[in-house]
Amino acid sequence: MATIKTDRRKFVKYSTLGVLGLAMGAGVFFSPYGKVPENRLRPPGAVEEDKFLALCIKCGQCLQVCPYHSIKLSDMAKGHGVGTPYIDASERACYACSAVPCVLACPSGALDHHCEKPEDIEMGIAYLEHPDTCLAMTNTPIPKGYNTKMHEFTKNVTNVTQLELDLLEKLDSFEGKQCTLCADMCPIPNPLSAIAMVYDSSGDGKKPEIYDGCIGCGACEEVCPTQVPSIVIKPRGTYEQYYKNA
Questions:
Q1: Across the strands, what pairs with 221?
Q2: Please, what is the angle between helix 148-155 and helix 162-172, to 10°?
Q3: What is the per-residue pLDDT across 41-50, written as a single tens digit (0 to 9) for each?
Q4: pTM of the entire structure?
């Protein structure tokens, strides 16, 4: 009789744990966050978001061929695109490689192979979100050590490339100068089609002006020397959306 009671207690205990486990699992899959649409900056050539999520097989090939280590895979934090590639421009932007290797590596069509060169990229649009903090507009020199975060990023990369080292060397040369980083670091072949520094009518400084050649690569956001980037990328945003009626 004692054995029967003990077995019954074990059955109740483990059955209860099993039910709780299933409930917790369901909580993950059916929580509100599981269905929240993502607004991430996708790699070059990414098709429309719903189609992208349907086509992406989460293979990570785009990540592996990126020479700047720009591409990451999303986690469970939020959204329903777990395992899909994205770019966090505040950490490491896309630098618009001439052959667009991430697109070439994509086997599923989530990154459209019609995107063959930097000018074909349409990731988003740059926007001066915080003009009051822009160093160029206040004629404030770029502070020493402004690119510490970029050095730290490179230190944490196990297979750093020469392109990344060249990028760091170029960034180091701007310390102490008047800020034109967002325009000078634009990586597309004809950067003046995307961004230029123009005199600000409200002061003696200059400000970045965005043009329809902007591809939304995020380089301007990454190199912006303010604590919170003054200029940011609006993922999948277009020039018409943000500037046509401005």
A1: none
A2: 160
A3: 999 999 999 9
A4: 0.83
